[in-house]
Amino acid sequence: MPSRKFADGEVVMGRWPGSVLYYEVQVTSYDDVAHLYTVKYKDGTELALKESDIKSQSSFKHRKSQSSSSSPSRRSSSRSRSRSRSPGRPAKGRRRSASQSREHKDDKKKIIQETSLALAVLVLFKPSENNTKRYNGEPESTEKNDTSCIILEQKLKPDLEIKRVLEQYSLRSRKDDKKTEEIFSEKKTFVALKPVEKVPSKTKELEFGGRIGTFTLIFLLPATVFYLLSMCKQDDPSLLNFPPLPALESLWEWRVFGVCLLWFFLQAVFYLLPIGKVVEGLPLSNGRRLQYRINGFYAFILTAAAIGVLLYFQFEFHYLYDHFMQFAVSAAAFSLALSIYLYVRSLKAPEEELAPGGNSGYFIYDFFTGHELNPRIGNFDLKYFCELRPGLIGWVVINLAMLLAEMKIHNLSMPSLSMILVNSFQLLYVVDALWNEEAVLTTMDIIHDGFGFMLAFGDLVWVPFVYSLQAFYLVGHPTTITWPVAAAITVLNCIGYYIFRSANSQKNNFRRNPSDPKLANLKFIPTATGKGLLVTGWWGFVRHPNYLGDIIMALAWSLPCGFNHILPYFYVIYFICLLVHREARDEHHCKQKYGLAWERYCQRVPYRIFPYIY
User: Fold this and answer.
1) Is residue 164 domain-resident?
2) 573 in a structural domain
3) CA 189 to CA 165: how far, in whole Å?
4) pLDDT value at position 549?
5) Can you tell me where the transmembrane regions are (predicted)?
6) 3-state class of 343 per DSSP?
7) 31 vs 354, residue with greater confidence
8) Less crowded by CB within 10 Å, the N or C end of the chain?
9) Cβ–Cβ under 8 Å, residues 395 and 430
């Protein structure tokens, strides 16, 4: 194996991908498997470069000394060449010398040969009055000049990419000199080039307490679910009144397991139906876009129709309530079997299809977090299917079964007001998720996290059986609330839902189509990755505002259960802990990804939901 040439911490000259220009960078690490250096530019951008794209500073000094000792005519030619137009530089004129033309053709030919390493996004900056400022894919060394850009997504053919960049996209002064800011509110232009193909490296930073933490969670999560369900069955569900351990044979019934399998495969059939539009997800690390069929809401309608038919024929849905613990055990067993299958198949997956956060090389950690990013059987995406279908729609069915069980057990002609509120609030949440199904393609679960035990258990067990905890609690512990109290709780839930939906809509629409005219009023900070950081609307008020809406809604779901016991509020406590972890992870991830742009964003939006936690 060849030895590395440059050491960690060494300051060298790195070529910016897709160009022939070199910049001063610092070597941060080296991947022995991929033979790639991770370097950091002065603006905070980190990229993986080949050794051939890195040169020592001494070689550049040697060239400079040679240039300074050349003849006057040679120096004049060099000065002429330094003014040759690069991608994004304003055209100074159409006349070129013979040496300029030859160099221009050579550079153009070299860049065309390197289109596989072309920069993902080219940002064209507005020139200032005193110094014409340009940005042709390289990091800028100064940040004082105000800039303005227009975002236009284009897919260019490989043989036309460089030609259009070199010859057509020249900077011109804007006619109307408007007031500019560090945050860009005017029209913006991105020219989307072929993205840099990255070779996945080993996961270095382990979450959830590393190997020991993930090993513990594999047992702790199922135990937590069974403990909560056992507590709800007790007459006194206080924390000090620990429930007795049930007999093992009472936890399993093959008929129940068969119903779980039938439910899973029924939702799979609905997923495969050729209804609904097909959309592309965000680009993967290799530039590929996966296709997804958006028909979750149709699956919900078909499921509701099937439930209606069963009710018409007087199917006893309280069977689900009577065997609720057995259903939870069956779902947990199925999720474990699915996780084992996912990990075994991931061992044969190509390197570029592995999850960036689940490629540590440690069996337990990768099994828990998910080793493969998008496991598919043909066009059937397992992670995307489980994200919204079996668990989320199953949550609504469980709530309905609890409502019917309450009416039968307590001989009610109609469900209690508390049960109606819980069912209505959570039904709104599920319908919203399915109606906005396309938005899930921009979440961390899809674009970053692998599909392993964490998501499989969370989607198939935690969501349907823990999120329905309030409805399950109300069956055995009926709570009476007045209409004014119900009205106040409804207003609280509407406030949380409004914050949650409006914040997520702003983020998702901007992330998928930044050039949408409807988003022209949004301000953002551009980053070296080509993406923007929103600083208007909810995202200019507080970081991660969608989490704020989640917490308010979770509280509204628990309030109808009263204050006799803390058990119905477990979901609120869990959700706060979950969001603390997610917000801390997002902060760390964004700081690494966006560098100085994230620091500017934090100065602009200093408020956090949990300011003193991390």
Assistant:
1) no
2) yes
3) 13
4) 87
5) 212-231, 251-273, 294-313, 325-344, 447-469, 481-500, 521-542, 562-581
6) helix
7) 354
8) N
9) yes
> Do 378 and 467 lie in a common domain?
yes
Burial 331-369 (b: 16+ CB within 10 A, else e): bbbbbbebbeebbeebeeeeeebbbbbbbbebebbbbbb
| Per-residue pLDDT reduced to its tens digit, 435-445 | 989 888 888 88
Q: How far apart are CA 40 and CA 366, in angstroms?
A: 28
Q: Which amino acid is at 116?
A: S
H-type helices in 347-409, by residue range?
363-369, 382-388, 394-409
Is 569 strand, coil or helix? helix
Check whether residue 334 and residue 388 sit in a common domain: yes
Percentage of residues in the chain having pLDDT higher than 70: 75
Q: Given 480, 507, 523, which residue is the final one in a domain? A: 480
The CATH number covering residue 17 comes to: 2.30.30.140
Mean pLDDT of 179-192: 40
| Domain assignment of residue 41, given as a range | 10-58
Closest to 6 (Cα-Cα) out of 32, 37, 43, 31? 37
Contact present, 136 and 214 (Cβ < 8 Å): no
Residue 484 near residue 143, CB atoms below 8 Å:
no
- 469 and 487 assigned to the same domain: no
Specify whether 460 is located in the same domain as 506. no
Q: Which of 431, 454, 480 is the last residue of a domain?
A: 480
pLDDT given at position 18: 66
Would you state the structure tokens that stand for residue 58, as one six-digit string?
A: 């001494």
Q: 566 with 239: CB under 8 angstroms?
A: yes
Q: Give the pLDDT confidence score for residue 83 in this predicted structure.
A: 39
Virtual torsion, Cα 22, 27, 31, 35, nearest 10 deg: 30
**Neighbouring C-beta atoms of residue 395, cutoff 10 Å:** 21
Q: Do 443 and 495 fall into the same domain?
A: no
C-alpha to C-alpha distance for 208 and 217, rounded to whole angstroms: 8
Asked if 461 and 504 sit in the same domain, the reply is no
pLDDT of 175 reads: 39
Number of H helices, E strands in the chain: 21, 13
Q: How far apart are CA 76 and CA 67, in angstroms?
A: 11
Query: Is the separation of the CB atoms in 229 and 472 below 8 Å?
Result: yes
CA distance 122 to 189: 8
The predicted pLDDT at position 117 comes to 39
